[in-house]
Task: structure prediction
Amino acid sequence: MTENSGLRSLALPAKDAETFNAYLHLPFEPIALEMMQMPVNADDVFIATFPKSGTTWMQQICHGLRSAGDMSFKEVSWVAPWLERGHMFGIDSRITQHYAPRLFKTHLPYTQINKGARYIHFIRDPKDALVSFYNFLSHGLIDPHALSIETFAECWLLADQLAERSDPLAPFGPYLYNYWQHLLDWWAARAQAPVLTLVYEHLRRDLAPQVARVADFMGIAADAALLELATRQAGFEFMAAHKDQFSDEIIGIPRLHKVVRGEVGAHRQLLSPALAARIDAAWRHYVTPVMGAAGYEEFIAVLP
Result:
């Protein structure tokens, strides 16, 4: 982690909306901007997700396919680095990758990402993503006893962060994510670049055929044995047994484990009807006029 990353100057864990908003508005560091402009290869694969939408899961799938199941890595981001934030963990995204194609993960929209590669756009229900991110950050970056999920949602998922920006051409910042803009941006990118859109819920329902789709998109001639291996190593039991290889280590913050059950529809037990309704309304406000789908479930119903 670099000294100027901004986290050191914040009173973490965040106990109020003001501190959490300060975290969201941290600017990109020069090294991050450099990574976002580095040249890429046509066969590179970027795993492009909104936070807590299955990023680590897809890193494991892609790396397992290209490496025939190599598990010698310290943590998966050492073999599939986080483009704009890898330096926080001492990882330079320009490091030599020992398997092909090269892999990167990112939470950036297509408009901000390096152009000229291939992109796996992995999507998840915004309500489940909200609950997952809240629980994830509750391990050291926010205080869940002081910052409710309703307040968290107001800051992160429901705030019209795009309207705040004084310069619409400037990078958003590493944590100023907007679910609606991210979805629309990557969906539009399919007309400009090789983009494979995959659905978290579909992988949860039937993983093996989706792994085969990933292999085909990556240009990997995977036989039945490799597909079985990559599918098994992307299963919850396997990843949970190797959970330290799928957890972030930031200096001064408890280890952030990323392998959890990730149940589909878990938000139904955790979100109030009022908050769920507000998220549905946000979908109809931002997404429906562009895509037509009245909600997330209707949208993914037509995707393979």
User: Anything to note?
Assistant: The radius of gyration is 18 Å.
